[in-house]
Design goal:
single chain; six-stranded antiparallel β-sheet; alpha+beta; 7 helices; seven-stranded antiparallel β-sheet; 18 strands; 422 residues
C-alpha cells in the first residue's frame, strides 16, 4: 500500500490533486501540471519570490518550466506495453480461432475417414458373405454329384446281388457253370463309377480369419487411440530417436545416370561418367537425384553421412516430376519436397522449400539425422554427435507418404550414405 501511495503521489499534482496534465519539473525535482504551477507562481509574482508548493524551496528568479521527460517516457513505455498486450491479445484470439478451425477440420476429416472405413467394412462383409455362399453352392453341388454316383453304384450292386441270388438257385450244374462264367466275364468288363469321398471343407477358416482381423483392428484402435488424441512428444536423445529408426535403401529405378549406387543401395556416389541404367519412367533425367525404395509414414528416423563438397538431404512425395524445369523436379524448389543443403566447402546449411532458401545456423557435422512424424506434420533435421542439435524444424500437413532422397549439386566424387542404425 505504501508503494502504491508513492506511485500515486509521483503521478499526481499536489496543487490540483489530479493526475498530472502536461507535467513539468521545477529545479527542486517536484512535478506539477504546467497550468497549476504557472497559476501558483503568478500569485507569487508580487512578492518577487517563487517557491515549491511541496518543499517550500525558494527561487530568486521564476524558473523556466521543463517538461517531465521521465514521466512522456513512462507514458510511452506504458503505451508501448499496451500496444504489445493488445497485439498479444489479438494473437491469442487468432490462436483460439485457429484451434477452432483445426478442431472443426479434424472432426470433419475424421467423420469422412470413419465413414470410408465403415463403408469398406460393409463391403468386405458383403464380399465375405457372397464368397461363402458361392463356395457353399459349389460344395453342395459337388456333394450332390457324389450322392448321385453313390446311388448309381448302390443300384448296380443291388442288381448284381439279385442276379447272383437267382443264379444260386439254379439246380442244373451245367447251366449254373455256364451262367456263372458269363456273369463273371460281364463283371470284369463293367467298370462301376468312381465314388471316392473327399473330406468336406467347412468354413471354420473364414471365422478364424475374420476373428483375427477383428483382433488386429482392436489392437490398432487400442494402441493408436491415445496417440490420435494426445500426440507423443518429439524425442530428445539419440537413443529415443533410434526407437523409430528405419532402414533406408535407394531405388535403382529413380537414380540419375550420373549416380552410382553401392553398399546394398544405401550409398550414392557422383560419378564423372554416366552409368548404364535401363530406361524407366521413375528415373530422374536432368537432376542428379534419387529417392528411397521405402515409403515413409508414421514416426520415422534415419541418418545420412556424406563426404566432399555439397550434398542435399531430402524428403519428397513420390509423384514429384522426373523431367522438366528446376521448379518441377529439383528437390526443394517446389511444394513436393523439403531439402537441407549441406555445403562442406563453407561448413554451412540451407533449408530449401518451394524455391525459398533459408540459412540454418548450427554446428557443422558430416552426419545429419532426419525425424519424421507424418501424422503430426513434423519434419526435423538434426546435427548428430554426442548430443542431438536441432538444425531446422518444419510444421506442415503431409498429404501423401514421403520418400527419403539425395541431391548432388557439387563436384564429382561426392558421396552420401544412409547409415545402418541398430
Amino acid at each position: 500500500m505504501a508503494q502504491r501511495g508513492v506511485q500515486l503521489e509521483t503521478f499526481s499534482c499536489s496543487i490540483c490533486l489530479d493526475p498530472l496534465k502536461d507535467p513539468v519539473t521545477i529545479p527542486c525535482g517536484h512535478s506539477y501540471c504546467m497550468s497549476c504551477i504557472k497559476g501558483f507562481w503568478d500569485d507569487e509574482d508580487e512578492t518577487k519570490v517563487h517557491s515549491c508548493p511541496q518543499c517550500r524551496q525558494t527561487f530568486t528568479q521564476r524558473p523556466v518550466l521543463v517538461k517531465n521527460i521521465t514521466l512522456e517516457l513512462s507514458r510511452l513505455n506504458i503505451q508501448q506495453r499496451i500496444q504489445d498486450r493488445e497485439k498479444d491479445l489479438q494473437e491469442l484470439q487468432q490462436e483460439v480461432e485457429a484451434i477452432s478451425r483445426s478442431a472443426d477440420k479434424a472432426v470433419e476429416d475424421s467423420e469422412k475417414i470413419f465413414t470410408e472405413l465403415i463403408r469398406l467394412m460393409e463391403k468386405r462383409r458383403s464380399d465375405v458373405k457372397q464368397q461363402v455362399r458361392s463356395q457353399q453352392d459349389a460344395e453342395v453341388s459337388r456333394v450332390k454329384e457324389l450322392q448321385e454316383e453313390l446311388e448309381q453304384e448302390i443300384t448296380e450292386l443291388k442288381r448284381r446281388d439279385a442276379e447272383l441270388k437267382e443264379l444260386s438257385h439254379t439246380e442244373d450244374h451245367n447251366q449254373f457253370l455256364q451262367n456263372y462264367f458269363s456273369f463273371s466275364r460281364l463283371s470284369d468288363s463293367l467298370e462301376l463309377p468312381s465314388t471316392k469321398i473327399r473330406p468336406l471343407r467347412y468354413f471354420d477358416h473364414v471365422t478364424a480369419a475374420v476373428s483375427e482381423l477383428r483382433e488386429k483392428l482392436q489392437d490398432v484402435l487400442r494402441d493408436e487411440w491415445t496417440n490420435i488424441l494426445l500426440p507423443q512428444p518429439e524425442p530428445e536423445t539419440r537413443d529415443q530417436f533410434l526407437k523409430y529408426s528405419r532402414q533406408i535403401t535407394l531405388d535403382p529405378n529413380t537414380v540419375n545416370t550420373q549416380l552410382l549406387l553401392s553398399e546394398g543401395n544405401r550409398r550414392a556416389t557422383l560419378m564423372r561418367e554416366e552409368q548404364s541404367y535401363s530406361s524407366h519412367p521413375d528415373r530422374f533425367i536432368r537432376w542428379r537425384q534419387v529417392l528411397s525404395t521405402q515409403s515413409l509414414t508414421g514416426r520415422c528416423y534415419w541418418e545420412v553421412e556424406w563426404s566432399r563438397k555439397r550434398v542435399t538431404v531430402v524428403v519428397a512425395y513420390k509423384n514429384i516430376s522426373r523431367a522438366g524445369s528446376m521448379n518441377e523436379c529439383a528437390f526443394g524448389f517446389n511444394n513436393k519436397s523439403w531439402a537441407l543443403e549441406c555445403n562442406c566447402s563453407s561448413s554451412s546449411y540451407k533449408f530449401i522449400y518451394n524455391g525459398v532458401k533459408t540459412r540454418v545456423a548450427g554446428p557443422w557435422t558430416s552426419r545429419v539425422g532426419v525425424y519424421l512424424d507424418h501424422r503430426a506434420g513434423l519434419l526435423s533435421f538434426y546435427c548428430v554427435s554426442d548430443t542431438m542439435t536441432l538444425l531446422h524444424r518444419v510444421q506442415t500437413t503431409f498429404t501423401q507418404p514421403l520418400h527419403a532422397g539425395l541431391w548432388f549439386s557439387g563436384y564429382k566424387g561426392a558421396t552420401a550414405e544412409f547409415c545402418e542404425l541398430k
